[in-house]
Design goal:
This protein has one domain. By secondary structure, it is mainly alpha-helical. The chain contains three helices and no strands. α1 packs antiparallel against α2 and α2 packs antiparallel against α3.
């Protein structure tokens, strides 16, 4: 079993299943904090999928997309923390 077979048959299905479970958590999250954490984790799982796809297809340009998604996820988390901080002050 080569590394590419391992990526195809083990890692990608596990990531797909985890993305599905995270999306369900995103939909039924009881609070806004739960949904933001689920969205952040969903983006992180997507970054993992993009990175594996980049390895499989031997195209490093997809890693740039993954890096941009990581920056967007980080800025979203920081914006949410700022929102929570402002909400507590009122």
């Amino acid at each position: 079993m080569s590394v590419y077979d391992y990526l195809y048959f083990i890692i990608l299905p596990v990531l797909a299943l985890s993305a599905l479970l995270i999306f369900i958590r995103f939909l039924i999250g009881p609070s806004l904090s739960d949904r933001v954490v689920a969205l952040d984790l969903l983006i992180t799982t997507g970054i993992g999928m993009i990175a594996i796809y980049s390895i499989i297809t031997d195209q490093p340009t997809f890693l740039d997309i993954a890096m941009i998604l990581g920056l967007i996820a980080f800025l979203g988390t920081v914006a949410f923390a700022y929102y929570i901080e402002k909400k507590k002050r009122k």
